[in-house]
């Protein structure tokens, strides 16, 4: 009964606003009345604007012959469509307002008000509009940036190279501040986009926390205390990995298995006798539905025990136990006894085997190890991945100064980047061919490098034409960050199409990039 009374009171109040909303205030003496001020819009006219765009509105005021210099203007909006609290957003006759509020629906609109006030007698004419804020962020690149090396915000790029069936270019900056009033405390080192039950999200990982944002409007979802079934007291997030019907989280040297599409929170960690290192290779390829997952999923180098480990599956029905390779040598690689190395990068090969870039702890020499995918016969234990070949990279130019490594799965090519150059390693043969492929403009330094892979790869039926065929490069010159898309040509040769590089300017320092669907 109380709810009905509240509804009736609200309806009466709304009707009253409709009656007085565009009428002048003539409650003072008749000699202090306003002229017949009118607006070029009907009362409560519905308007809309895309989030993060600028709302420009000329009210087309008719002052009925009076001196317009004797009036002031105040534009107000209620940040929460369900609330009656308003904030001032402009004091100009013509409104120009960058909209950072979260999107809403046409049945849950904001109210935009304009007060035109006579300076002499303070009488006002009031007009208002129903404002709907539309979602303006879709498939593209989410970019974590920092302007002070202490806090992180998001930017976003939509363009034909990263957005399906899109012909325009849209760049938005400071999204988190606009949507939530604040960014992230700390520096983000990794981003992960996921299809989550209840709505898509982007996860941002710092050294000691994790944050999630709803990609519909980039509203804040929660941090580590909200994102786990059982929140750990302290976390040290490493990364997320996408796998067929699974989202695998690696943190605190432990793995967490689950599928966000069915459960929105991270589940309980898998307890292993030996810690899981920070760098793993995960095979994301889908398989046919079976009672046992036949694709080996996770392979890694354990530098504490000087051998390679593997986990057979990640799904609910798979064997997620920790195994280690036997003390056997194949093609110069003994996976069960390979001492004194550090794993620098890992990935999947063109044959769906495993790749590991190792660095010798004593000499500093680099080598790339190529493994097969292991062997599985139904009803029998896996045969651990065996070495296929070892690529010596001890003479690779400037590799000791490299900070970024990218391993491709559609060609036998690896890229590494120093502060200013990108090199390609072509290893299809017995030995590597190593050539410089790109040098950044003078004054810029490379901050990130990755391969563009559309969300859902490699388990979708179709992809955008640029999928797996362009590098995402970010640079910083001390004041401005840039993001470049470097098209790859001549598959197998690691060549970059320099004539068709796409550059996006005007960012802060870029920390991480992830494709968003």
Description:
With 517 residues, the protein is mostly beta strands. The chain has a domain at 2-134: Immunoglobulin-like (Sandwich). The chain contains 3 helices and 39 strands. The protein has a 5-stranded mixed beta sheet with strand order 1-7-6-3-4, with no helix packed on it. The protein starts with a helix and ends with a strand.
SSE inventory with pairings:
Blueprint: H1 2-20, E1 45-50, E2 54-57, E3 71-77, E4 87-90, E5 95-98, E6 110-118, E7 124-134, E8 140-146, E9 151-158, E10 170-172, H2 175-180, E11 184-185, E12 190-194, E13 201-205, E14 210-214, E15 219-222, H3 224-227, E16 237-243, E17 246-251, E18 254-256, E19 269-270, E20 281-282, E21 298-302, E22 307-311, E23 322-324, E24 329-330, E25 333-334, E26 341-348, E27 354-360, E28 366-371, E29 387-392, E30 404-407, E31 413-417, E32 421-426, E33 433-439, E34 445-451, E35 470-476, E36 481-489, E37 495-496, E38 502-507, E39 509-516
Parallel strand pairs: 1-7
Antiparallel strand pairs: 2-5, 3-4, 3-6, 6-7, 8-9, 8-39, 9-10, 9-11, 12-13, 13-14, 14-15, 16-17, 17-18, 18-19, 20-21, 21-22, 22-23, 24-25, 26-27, 27-28, 28-29, 30-31, 31-32, 32-33, 34-35, 35-36, 36-37, 36-38
């Amino acid at each position: 009964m109380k709810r009905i009374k509240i509804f009736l009171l609200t309806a009466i109040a709304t009707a009253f606003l409709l009656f007085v909303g565009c009428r002048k205030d003539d409650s003072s003496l008749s000699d202090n009345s306003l002229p017949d001020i009118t607006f070029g819009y009907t009362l409560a006219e519905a308007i809309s604007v895309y989030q993060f765009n600028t709302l420009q509105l000329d009210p087309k005021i008719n002052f009925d012959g009076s001196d317009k210099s004797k009036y002031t203007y105040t534009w107000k909006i209620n940040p929460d469509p369900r609330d009656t609290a308003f904030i001032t957003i402009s004091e100009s006759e013509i409104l120009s307002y960058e909209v950072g509020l979260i999107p809403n629906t046409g049945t849950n609109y904001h109210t935009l008000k304009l007060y035109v006030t006579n300076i002499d007698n303070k009488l006002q004419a009031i007009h208002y509009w129903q404002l709907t804020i539309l979602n303006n962020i879709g498939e593209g690149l989410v970019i974590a940036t920092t302007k002070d090396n202490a806090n992180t915000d998001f930017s976003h790029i939509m363009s034909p190279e990263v957005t399906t069936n899109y012909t325009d270019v849209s760049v938005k900056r400071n999204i988190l501040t606009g949507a939530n009033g604040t960014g992230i405390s700390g520096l983000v080192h990794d981003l992960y986009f996921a299809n989550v039950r209840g709505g898509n999200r982007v996860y941002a990982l710092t050294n000691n926390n994790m944050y999630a944002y709803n990609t519909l409007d980039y509203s804040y979802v929660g941090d580590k205390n909200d994102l786990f079934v059982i929140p750990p007291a302290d976390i040290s997030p490493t990364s997320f990995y996408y796998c067929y019907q699974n989202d695998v989280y690696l943190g605190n040297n432990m793995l967490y298995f689950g599928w966000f599409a069915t459960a929105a929170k991270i589940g309980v960690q898998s307890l292993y006798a030996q810690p899981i290192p920070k760098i793993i290779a995960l095979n994301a390829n889908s398989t046919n539905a079976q009672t046992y997952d036949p694709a080996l999923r996770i392979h890694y180098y354990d530098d504490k025990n000087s051998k390679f480990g593997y986990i057979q599956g990640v799904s609910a029905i798979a064997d997620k136990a920790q195994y280690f390779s036997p003390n056997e040598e194949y093609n110069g690689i003994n996976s069960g006894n390979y001492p004194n190395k550090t794993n620098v990068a890992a990935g999947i090969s063109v044959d769906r085997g495993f790749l590991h870039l190792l660095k010798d702890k004593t000499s500093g020499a680099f080598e790339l190890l190529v493994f097969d995918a292991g062997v599985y016969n139904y009803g029998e234990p896996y045969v651990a991945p065996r070495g296929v070949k070892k690529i010596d990279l001890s003479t690779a130019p400037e590799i000791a100064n490299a900070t970024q490594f990218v391993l491709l799965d559609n060609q036998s090519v690896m890229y590494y980047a120093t502060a200013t150059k990108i090199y390609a390693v072509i290893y299809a043969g017995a030995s590597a061919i190593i050539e410089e492929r790109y040098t950044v403009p003078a004054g810029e330094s490379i901050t990130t490098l990755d391969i563009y892979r559309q969300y859902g790869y490699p388990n979708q039926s179709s992809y955008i034409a640029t999928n797996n065929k362009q590098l995402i490069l970010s640079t910083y010159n001390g004041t401005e960050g840039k993001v470049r898309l470097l098209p790859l040509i001549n598959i197998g040769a690691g060549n970059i199409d320099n004539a068709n590089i796409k550059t996006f300017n005007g960012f802060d320092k870029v920390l991480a990039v992830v494709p968003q669907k």
